[in-house]
Amino acid sequence: MTGPAAAPKPGIGLILRSAVFQLLYHLWLVAIGVALLPAFLLPWRTLYAGGRIWVHGILFLLRRVCGIEWEVRGREHLPVEAAGLEAGGFLIASKHQSAWDTLIFPLLVRDPAYVLKRELLLLPFFGWSMWRLRMVAVDRKGGAAALRRMQAAARRIVGEEGRPLVIYPEGTRTAPGEARPYHPGVAALYGELGVPVVPVALNSGLFWPRQSFLRRPGTIVVEFLEPIPPGLPRRQFLAELAARIEPATERLVAEGRGEGERPGASNGDKTDAG
Description:
Elements: H1 12-35, H2 44-66, E1 68-73, E2 91-94, H3 101-104, E3 113-117, H4 126-132, E4 136-138, H5 143-160, E5 165-167, H6 184-193, E6 197-202, E7 218-224, H7 234-256, E8 269-270
Parallel strand pairs: 1-7, 2-5, 2-6, 3-4, 3-5
Antiparallel strand pairs: 1-8, 6-7
Helix pairs in contact: 1-2, 5-6, 6-7
């Protein structure tokens, strides 16, 4: 994989739009946080519904202020029930380039849980919400005991509650054009849960870069890839997961930079309606 290309020097218009977005983003965060305080006393799905409203608001601001659209491809790869709804009980293993990646999945699958750092639960309001929504918190320094706790929480989410579980195999955000080794936690969950894993490729880091307040106009593409069935040996699974996510991500990044030809997007949505 090639290294990340240098971004062009931002113009004053881009800086101003990004600054306006940041201001409106934080105002929206405070407003929705206050509005949702009573939801902490209600069933957790009520709070989740409020969280989706928050996400829709952010996507609206991105589109109107920053010129960022988004598109979904590969919905046909999601496990489905007879009724045509996304089935619970599967893993989503996603590339992670941007904070945008942490927002979008509640609009694409039903009430997903996330594997996240335990430290995030300490953040006021956001962390409390993550706890209330029954996310899977991981102590990265906890060793084998932390891994067992993660597996137990994942069994509850996927097996008992039938919810999809989202995990970022690299463990942190990586810039477009970069890759990191996949952490063993995703393989541990795969072996423990015995459910399909849906890999996800994306190019969000081109438009919402990590460690930058700039929001560059364009279309973020998130693509569900062909699921990996349960039962593979651990090393084979990790190799297969990387072999699916990394080339697809390279393709989407090249496309987003205007270096690749956009395929006909079967099942692709260019929308913020989810």
